[in-house]
Amino acid sequence: EEKLALLEGLRRALDATLADDAVDDPDAVPAAYSPAGRFHLVYQPKVDLRTGRIFGVEALIRWRHPEHGTVPPMRFIGLAEESGLIVGLGEWVVRTACRQASVWRAAGLDALTVSVNVSARQFEEKRLVERIAGALRDTGLPPSSLELEVTESLLMRDLNQAVERMRELKEMGVSLSIDDFGTGYSSLSALKSFPISTLKIDKSFVRDIAVSADDQAIALAVISLGHRLQLRVIAEGVETVEQRDFLRANDCDEMQGYLFSPPLPAERITEMLRAQAQQ
Ligand code: C2E
Ligand code: CA
Ligand code: CA
Ligand code: CA
């Protein structure tokens, strides 16, 4: 019952969000009060560990609810997935992220890659490639500026289909990264057949990386595996200088985490990019 109410809330929030997007003027007040609230995206910088510069951002969804405040994705992505609502919601995420990335490009700021999380149901949906092509076309974002983050467990559900899907996306020019790497069960031989460009070390391995020999061993193994497969390796959840220094000393390419910046509204990212452009 609680689940039904949550699902109904999600549906209405998506409708309200899409209705706002249909209004041309970005400064217009939201079309109508929505008792279920609305979705928005926040963006977390991804930083090159050698240069310290922002080269991309990950888009993360938030649900702002008039009564419940900001609802984190962990509370609703599962249900959106289960109910199929993730397909429409995910398409909104892709479009919104692409539109924002093309605004940053048009402002002459450093070319950024925007990364979007894609869930299993969304990835397997027949029209995924079409939907993504449509979002790129409508926003004018070059495909090379879009990256999709997928998890190993998603890819292992139907290996052949996943590889086929990934090839189509790669052909289009979109890049792919494996999220939460090490927490799922992808076989190493499968990894070889994935047309991906990046491995992301999950934050559960990063947390104790400065002190735990086991976590160090895992991170080092992922970094060297990634590099041998000619992939870039990024660590998420980097919160301390010690974690960053360990990763940098051990050749990890990129990082993301509260140490550099939490996920922020687009305007705050614009400010960071402006400051970076002056350096
Ligand atoms: P994820 O893709 O693994 O994203 C990383 C999570 O770690 C994000 O939580 C981010 O805010 C958080 N984080 C970033 N830096 C740090 C740090 O230094 N320390 C710690 N402890 N956490 C950090 P968030 O935004 O709550 O998202 C949770 C999960 O929800 C994501 O995990 C992703 O699986 C899912 N998600 C978020 N947005 C979307 C979306 O648009 N579509 C789909 N399908 N899933 C999404
Ligand atoms: Ca992610
Ligand atoms: Ca993760
Ligand atoms: Ca994830």
Automatic annotation (TrEMBL):
It comes from Telluria antibiotica. The lineage of its organism: Bacteria, Pseudomonadati, Pseudomonadota, Betaproteobacteria, Burkholderiales. This is EAL domain-containing protein. It comes from the Bacteria. The chain holds residues 626 to 904 of 915 of the full protein. Residues 22-277 form the EAL domain.
